């Protein structure tokens, strides 16, 4: 996760139960995405979660700051220039 969201450390690798050593050929794309979706929407700390869930106020603040943060990221600018142009006040 490269955008600060109060729960994961930007630039660090996520480790979920379906990664690396626990990966199995029995996993389909659908089963992996279902598990990943459940993990990302969980409010409880677990593997791969760095911090406790942030308060609603902190979530709103981080969301409002995310566009500026991403506009400073070279890869984001390279791959998503249309998102920068669609937001007034950001060059």
How many helices does DSSP assign?
Answer: 4
* Count of distinct structural domains: 1
Average residue pLDDT: 75
SSE string, helices as H and strands as E:
HHHH
Percentage of residues assigned to helices:
40-55%
Low-confidence stretches: none
Counting helices, strands and paired strands, the structural category is mainly alpha
% residues in beta strands: under 5%
Shape: globular
Strand segment tally: 0
N→C terminal distance: 23 Å
Q: What is the alpha-carbon Rg in Å? A: 16 Å
Main sheet record = none
InterPro entries: UBQ-conjugating_enzyme/RWD (IPR016135)
Question: Can you put this structure into words, describing what you see?
Answer:
- By secondary structure, this protein is mainly alpha-helical.
- Helices cover 44% and strands 0% of the residues.
- The mean pLDDT is 75.
Question: Could you give the topology of this structure?
Answer:
Elements: H1 29-41, H2 56-71, H3 74-79, H4 81-85
């Amino acid at each position: 996760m490269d955008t600060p969201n109060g729960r994961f450390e930007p630039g660090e690798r996520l480790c979920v139960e379906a990664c690396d050593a626990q990966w199995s050929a029995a996993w389909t794309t659908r089963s992996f995405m279902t598990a990943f979706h459940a993990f990302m929407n969980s409010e409880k700390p677990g593997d791969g979660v760095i911090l406790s869930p942030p308060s609603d106020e902190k979530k709103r603040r981080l969301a409002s700051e995310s566009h500026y943060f991403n506009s400073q990221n070279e890869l984001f600018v390279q791959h998503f220039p249309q998102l920068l142009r669609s937001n007034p006040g950001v060059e």
